[in-house]
Amino acid sequence: MESWKRYVLVVLMMFSFVYQISTSVTHYSIPEEMKDGSVVANLATDLGLDVKTLNQRKMRLDIIANKKYLDVNKDTGELYVVEKIDREYICPTKSSASCYLRLEVILENPLRIFNIEVEILDMNDNAPQFRRDAIHLDISEATPKGERFSLSNAVDPDVGTNSVKTYHLSESEYFNIEVQTGREGSKFADLILKRALDREKQAVHNLILTAVDGGTPARSGTASVIVHVLDTNDNAPTFEKANLSVKIIENSPIGILVIDLNATDLDEGSNSDLTYSYSLYTSEKTQETFNLNPSTGEITVKGMLNYEDFKIYDMEVIATDKGVNSLSGQCTIKILVEDMNDNHPEISIKSFQSPVNENIELDTVIAVVSVSDKDSGDNGLVELHIPHNMPFKLRESSDNYYQLVVSQPLDREKVPEYDITFTVTDRGSPPLSDNETMTLELLDVNDNVPQFPQSFYTIRVMENNAPGALLSSLTAFDPDLHENQYLVYFILEKEIANTSMSMLFSINPENGNLYALKTFDYEIEREFLFHIEARDSGSPPLSSNVTVHIIIVDQNDNAPVIVSPWRAHGSVVEEKIPRSTDKGSLVAKVIALDTDSVHNSRITYQFLQVTDATLFSLDQYNGEIRTMRMFSYRDPRHQRLVVVAKDNGDPALSATVTIKLSTVETAVK
Ligand SMILES: *[C@@H]1O[C@H](CO)[C@@H](O)[C@H](O)[C@H]1NC(C)=O
Ligand SMILES: *[C@@H]1O[C@H](CO)[C@@H](O)[C@H](O)[C@H]1NC(C)=O
Ligand SMILES: *[C@@H]1O[C@H](CO)[C@@H](O)[C@H](O)[C@H]1NC(C)=O
Ligand SMILES: *[C@@H]1O[C@H](CO)[C@@H](O)[C@H](O)[C@H]1NC(C)=O
Ligand SMILES: *[C@@H]1O[C@H](CO)[C@@H](O)[C@H](O)[C@H]1NC(C)=O
Q1: In Å, what is the CA distance from 260 to each residue of 3, 49, 298, 347?
Q2: CA-to-CA distance for 107 and 55, rounded, in angstroms?
Q3: Is the pTM of this model over 0.70?
Q4: Its Gene Ontology biological processes (predicted)?
Q5: Topology (CATH level 3) of domain 243-338
Q6: Which atom of ligand 2 is nearest to the CA of 262?
Q7: Which ligand has the minimum distance to the alpha carbon of residue 493?
Q8: Class of domain 456-553
Q9: Which of 174, 152, 45 is closest to 105 using CA atoms?
Q10: Torsions phi, psi for 431 (to 5 deg)
Q11: 20 to 30 A Cα–Cα from 398, which one of 196, 354, 509, 590?
Q12: Tens of pLDDT along 42-80?
């Protein structure tokens, strides 16, 4: 059965009751929202009218103070719906429990007016509705739990059970609702805080409030409840790490960023607006060296960073928010300054011995040197060295102390002094170094023997020399210094044939000039062999000697002497020769002797005079005079030959001999 028919049935039952108590009003009940044309009742039947007369009596319907929702069929007497009836439209005020359409049925001939009341029964045709789709609430996070907040209620134009019956809230761990009943039975809900809010955990809560009516089926309407949690300053600023350590290289430029402190405050607005400051724990020195930007928390370099002065800076920074009851958080920062190789190593000569004797012993300590470097690590590790080509070496005696010792024999005569450069280098990158040069002077020691340029001197002296003639200069050399170099020359005594050399020669002790003391004669003495010594004046003195060989050189100071044919001095030699002597026969042999030496004594023979040049020949080398032909009677009986013997000197010396030849007839016995 359609629902509206069920209502009509109920109305009809009521009608009989109404009719009983009030004959003037006929009562019907119909549900709202009936379809056009739906029959509500048969008025003819209900009012006891003859159906056939209705047209004739011009039956009509008046609806008082309302649109024409209903009409009557004059043929059947049926009251039917002309336009859909909305109860909530007709009776907007909720207070009236019942809603009526009052009608008058008017008939003429005779005129009859029937009052009819059509009660419009509510149907659940409206869903509860909120005035706004969204309900915004601002709730402080400090609000205690149990606090209530009224929510605007939903309205449902339906009445009675079809009206709002209750509310539901979407699932929330923070909120629930309590449904209240108002004076006129209206329902509304209070939002109740179940537990304390935390903006930092959830700043906005989106809830759905559903209003449900009591109809069957129930209808509902929803509104979103948006709870904005208002911040309170309940969070202190915090640093990501309470304990930071940063490294920065020394000599970093002013203004360079060391660290950017990012403290955070979970609150919002001024409650999270932070200022940074140093705590009292932070020393003046640290505050002077590092700048803290109060609004950004950036720490920058403000003063010189010198690792050698300060290696670690400790600071404590406080971040404070600007909330009403401001909160703060703190952080300790350790700034470690890192070493840079910015210090040159240093050399300090602790002792240096100069001058020293050139014959100083090997391994003797000449100098003690210490080295240092203010840097640390490799930058501060230093090494000392000297050039490789030096007769010295370095020996590390203790930490950073070195001894310079002699490693090879020294010789002043080769290198009189040394410029020793000590170079210290650290292991930084790039390495730094320093150097210092010391001069070591060597003292002379008499360690050199005087040296003659030659070990053997041959000196030729022309005989007949003048006494006191300078023969030679025998100069020795001594590379030592001063008295070690000052030489004295003398002849080493040696007897030759009972003659003392110093009677023959003399030497200038200071310059080595050698003189002859007498005139020498080659024909008597031809050479002398002796030694000359040069001695220095060192202590002890050193000396050396050379052999001097004096050779007397011959001069052509002797004339040839004719020894054959023998004759008394100055006289003429007379020879007899047979007339019959053959051609080529030896007539005479001239022999001359010369006491000079070889060269000066080589003799040649020549005729100075000859009577007949065709008769005799003279061998110029052996002095033999031979016949060149047989004698004839025409030849004179006496022949005169003059022979000259000439030596080879320059100028040549000579002697002559005159030979008188007489031819005889018979052979000489
Ligand atoms: C910082 O760290 C050091 C060691 O790393 C520790 O001894 C000190 O207690 C820490 N300080 C704080 C405030 O955490
Ligand atoms: C702070 O924040 C900046 C920028 O986000 C970042 O570069 C820096 O490393 C942070 N500082 C620290 C200590 O975390
Ligand atoms: C010594 O140091 C000076 C600068 O101080 C430098 O000019 C020179 O080259 C160095 N000498 C050596 C041998 O290193
Ligand atoms: C040298 O002199 C000594 C005596 O003084 C003498 O006996 C000796 O015969 C001399 N020798 C010569 C070669 O003249
Ligand atoms: C001369 O010198 C040599 C060495 O050069 C030495 O053997 C010799 O004894 C010296 N002669 C004299 C007379 O001193």
Answers
A1: 78, 101, 4, 43
A2: 9
A3: no
A4: anatomical structure morphogenesis; homophilic cell adhesion via plasma membrane adhesion molecules
A5: Immunoglobulin-like (2.60.40)
A6: 1
A7: 5
A8: mainly beta
A9: 45
A10: -70, 150
A11: 354
A12: 988 888 888 888 888 888 888 877 788 999 998 998 999
